[in-house]
Write a structure and sequence with these properties.
By secondary structure, the chain is α/β, with parallel strands linked by helices. It is built from 8 helices and 7 strands. The strands form 3 sheets. It has a 3-stranded mixed sheet with strand order 1-2-3. It starts with a strand and ends with a helix. The structure holds zinc ion. The site of zinc ion (ZN) has 8 residues, from loops.
Length: 195
């Protein structure tokens, strides 16, 4: 979870999950049980964590949810959570990137097995090739970042996530953002797309 300033927070569903498990919140303990059994964490639990996060915020704040919702069911669960918290869904950002670029990005992804810092061979290269800037450990490629798995993830995205484009488009909250180019430019475009 990265808080860039007091009123704008980036919240990835993965970080939210790890944080809830670490802090042993009710939702975190329950989610941990599913993960230990090798099962998927139910959508309602992730939504509960988002609700817990919203409940802990006092004063105006914009949350940028990353990685959730990915399906229509998740979108409906999120609507309920947002409604219950008295919050408002102001925008849904669609980062528009061609498949070939996505595949290249994922194939170039490297990570530090020790400290978890992420890199990309061309977009976010470490100072020394293959070595983590922060701790000097040799970088690795995640098992699920191979081309075959990436193709599979794209197929899942098209089947399950693409329907959200129409779902949110019909509500007038969809903001299509060009997701290509340098990272800082993409971040700026996203910021401008969010009211
Ligand atoms: Zn490291």
């Amino acid at each position: 979870m990265v808080a860039s300033d007091g009123t704008f927070r980036h919240v990835s569903s993965g970080d939210l999950l790890r944080d809830a498990v670490k802090r042993q919140t009710a939702a975190g303990v329950e989610a941990d049980g599913y993960m230990k059994r090798g099962e998927l964490v139910p959508d309602v639990l992730i939504a509960k964590m988002i609700g817990d996060l919203m409940a802990g915020i006092s004063g105006p704040c914009t949350l940028l949810l990353d990685g959730f919702p990915r399906t229509l069911v998740q979108a409906e669960v999120l609507d309920e959570t947002i409604g219950r918290c008295g919050a408002e869904l102001s925008a849904v950002v669609l980062l528009d990137v061609e498949d070939v670029i996505l595949v290249d990005r994922i194939a170039g992804r490297r990570g530090c097995p020790k400290c978890g810092k992420g890199y990309h061979v061309t977009n976010i290269p470490p100072r020394v090739k293959g070595i983590c800037d922060a701790c000097g450990t040799e970088l690795i490629t995640r098992k699920d970042d191979n081309p075959e798995t990436v193709q599979n993830r794209l197929a899942v995205y098209k089947a399950q996530t693409v329907p959200l484009i129409e779902f949110y488009g019909a509500r007038g909250v969809l903001r299509k953002v060009d997701g290509t180019g340098p990272l800082d430019e993409i971040v700026e475009r996203v910021r401008q797309a969010v009211p």
